[in-house]
Amino acid sequence: MRILIIEDEPGIASFLKEGLEEEYFAVDVAGDGRKGLELALTSDYDLLLVDWMIPGISGIEVCRQLRKEGVETPVIFLTAKDTIEDVVFGLDAGANDYIRKPFEFEELLARIRVQLRRRGSEGGPLAAGLLSVDPATHEARYGPAGLALTPKEFALLEFLLRNKGKVCTRSRIIEHVWDMHFDSDTSVIDVYINFLRKKLDAAGCRNLIQTIRGVGYIVREGEAEEA
Questions:
Q1: How far, in Å, CA of 113 to CA of 2, rounded?
Q2: Cystine design at 86: which of 81, 141, 203, 217 (Cβ 3.0–4.6 Å)?
Q3: What is the pLDDT of residue 100?
Q4: Which residues, including other chains, have CB under 8 Å from residue 51's CB and lie 6 or more apart?
Q5: What per-residue confidence (pLDDT) applies to 176?
Q6: Which CATH superfamily is domain 2-117 in?
């Protein structure tokens, strides 16, 4: 397994490299965003560890450029930022997970292993009434109209549709959609649910995603109302 570390603090980069090599990972290090992006675009990595604030171009921009170029390698942000707005911003840029500095190496290693174990299964199109989601093409439509969803919005809607008729708890959503394990930060889910509802409402699909107070969310066949 090969990991790229994009980190400008030599002490942190060295600490991570040594620890990961002891776990038998092959590790490359880039000290700035431009070099990191170049390596990530031209070499084959199993996972990227990216510092949010790095010289050259930011970790956010590195992630955006990778996703724009179709690179789906898992990205874990290393960051001191911790507001819900920052979390949403980073995840929407295409990150799979994040860990706050300072962190314990064992926690980071566990998060890395979760990402490396993850296997996407595309399956066939999913539907609820006039709403359809195709995981193979990453297209979502309500009737003839396409829905412009961010990657995380699409993943969240796909997960809810895969579990149609079942209550999806916040802990299940955060683990399956983001592969994270929050104690209290599951409020990020509510932010994305709000984003999704607004876009569905604008398309004419109302009341598709229902709140189960204190538990999570559910999609039921036949509950959506056409505007």
A1: 12
A2: 81
A3: 86
A4: 6, 7, 8, 9, 12, 59, 77, 78, 79
A5: 67
A6: Response regulator (3.40.50.2300)
